[in-house]
Each structure stands twice: as C-alpha cells, then as structure tokens.
Structure of Putative sensory histidine kinase YfhA:
Amino acid sequence: MKQSGRVLLVDDDADLLRLLSLRLEAAGYLVDKAASAEAALSALAVRRADVLLTDWRLPGMNGMDLFELVKKSYPSMPVIILTAHGTVPDAVDAVSRGVFGYLVKPFDSAALLNKVEQALQLSAPAMVVDDQNAWRAEVVSCSPLMDELLAEARLVAATDASVLIRGESGTGKEVLARALHRASPRASGPFIAVNCAAIPDNLLESELFGHEKGAFTGAAARHQGLIAQADGGTLFLDEIGDMPLALQVKLLRVLQEREVRPVGASKSLAVDVRVISATHRDLESLIGDGLFREDLFYRLNVVALQLPALSERREDIPLLSQHFLAQLCERYGKEVAGFAPDAMEYLCSLRWSGNIRQLANAVEQCCVLSTSGLIPLSLVQKAVSDGMASIPTLAEARRQFERDYLEKLLRVTAGNASVAARIADRNRTEFYRLLQKHDLVASAFKEC
C-alpha cells in the first residue's frame, strides 16, 4: 500500500474520472474529484490536496489555465497533466514552465501510480518523525491558506536554508519556527529562541555570543551564549528587525564563517546552527533607512514564509477558541464545554488586530469569569474591546468591496464569467484568479 496522500483529480469525462479515482483509492490515496477547472479551484479553497492531476482539455478553463492559477496560490503543489498525443508538444512546454509532469493517454495504472507517487514524495518528503503530522501538532488550523504555508514549510524544513518568517504580531511565528525545527533533520538538537526586542541592547551581545570571565564589569563567570547553545540545532531570532546595527555585523559573520567569538575571547568557536528569523516589520524599509543591513537580509531571507493574519483565516477561530478553552479549563480546574452559538458567531466576526495572541487572551478572560457550562455572548463582549470590530482595516475594506463587486457582477451576468471579465476589464485568467481569491464559483450564480 502506498503512503496516504490526497489527490485532486480533474476530468470532464465522468467514466474516466470514476476509473482513475478507483485506481488511486485502491493504491491507498485519498481522492477528491472535480469535473472542471472551476470546480477544482472551489475544492482547493475548501481543502488543499497534495497533488493535482488534471486533464488538459476541460470545459471553460483548460488544464494549463488551471495550473497557472494553482501555481500562484499553491506554489508547492505538484501538478500532473493528462494529455492526448496531439498536445504532447504543449505538455513538454508546460513542464518547462513548472508542471511536474504529464501522462499521455492511454496510459496504464503503473505509470499513473508511479507518477503520482513521485509527485507526492516531492510535496511531502519523508520526515524524521514517526507520525507524519506530529511536527505540526502545535499549529491548530483547518485553513487551506495555512495548509499551503505548512506544505512549503515542510519542504524547506528538510534543508538547512535560512528562513525568514514574516507576519503581524500575534500570528504564531515562534509556533511555526518550532514546527520547522521538529520537521527537520535537526529535530533531536536544541531549539533556542531569542526575542531580539525583549533583551536590552547592552545585554543582547553577551546573551547571543557569550562572554569570558572578566570580559566586562559584572562578568564574574564564563557564560555560554545562545548561539553556541543552539549548536547542532536551530536558532530562532524573533523580531530580528529590532537587532542593533553593531550586532547585525557580528551575526552576519557567524552566518558566513560558521563560528562565534564570545565577548572578551581571543579565538572563535565553530558552531553548526540553522537560523530561522522572524519579524513583523518591513525590513526593506529599514534597509532604505539605514537601520538594517542589506547583506544580512539576503543571508536571512533565503526562504520567506508569510503567516496570514487571523482575519484571513477566520475558519480557524472556532478551532483555536475551543483549543485554548480546553487548555485553560485544565489549568484552572473549570468545566466549560464551549461557547454559545451567538458568542462564537461574535468571535468570528471580530477583526482581531492582535491576532491569535489577542484571541487567546480573550478566551482566557472568558474562561476565568465563566459561571456556566457555555460561555455567553455578554461575557465575550466584555472580554474584547467595544470598538475593536467597528472600523475595518483598509485591506479588509478593500477586500470586502472587491468581493461585493464580484458578487454583483456575477449576479448581473447570470454567472457568465467571460462577460463579467470583459465588464471588469480583466482577462479571463486574472478574473478567475479573483474569483478563487474570494472562494466564488461563477456557475453558482446562473440560477440567481
């Protein structure tokens, strides 16, 4: 039996769709089916697949149009195209543009399963942990957006490349960094986290690099720095944008030479660390202002991972709320089953400018003050600021306007995406990308 993985199968031939699905399921794969590219995009918005297997010729968008959209939204997802002999040259060209591979009809089961297995190994390489999902156990999410981020994280975890995690405060950057560490070959080594903004500038150098006895006033004993403590493992530098320029130079030397010199020492010590950094700040602007070194930025930003704000993954709010509540009930010895329906609806409607950290604080206050088995709406309202949800961010306002505009356009055109795209003055591919961004399916408006 093959390793379980999820395959999204796209073909407008119902009989072939059923046959291929049976073959894949018999080999141990989970299979989602779609009869068109548009249906496939809707399916991906609900649940991410590990591999996309699509016919070239489809009604509406063809397989290559689908690939182009998938590549933008799910860059780590391998795509296999099924093609007839007449489109082989096109398929070969598609491979040069990033398609994982193609199968020429008719093909046998062995060729199909072999190609899917190769693609699955690319999208979900063997990890050093027994349970393939244990590495991400602390990441509480059912969001397709987070699934794609974690797929990228899993790929980069297998390497020693430096990673820069970007995202707003409270989005869980350290949680993601720990998951990367657990998924890496360094999982058995130490994970050392340093908040560069929380340690005073005059102490940060000593904490990071260590010092010898007598190196400065108050250095009564030799101190091993955090970089040396991370030897053989992972060093996580949170809020890297707040590191003083003088220390940035020394950190760059560590990354370049793989050695660290403690304060007051006459020689350097070799270190073997993988560096993951994180920031909520615009490092490019800091570089322009002379506050962050460009050469260090390129050393740290080998791979960039962008954590979405909680407002971009609202489907995770009920999951996170219940997760925090269960932890808090155990800590405080309370028996609270959950949130009243209107209370949960209210939680999901809020903007959460402080993201997951703010949600956790609100849930804790609700848990502490709760006197019943279900947390009521009034307690949730008390736990959050009264004006938090009244004014959306500019990005949220633009996003809501865009969705309202698209919905109105599709209603007016009765779901005719081609006509709607012309009215919006967008090409068809770009228009479908907009629809996917807002989880809209044009065909659903034909009955409106």
Observations:
- The radius of gyration is 25 Å.
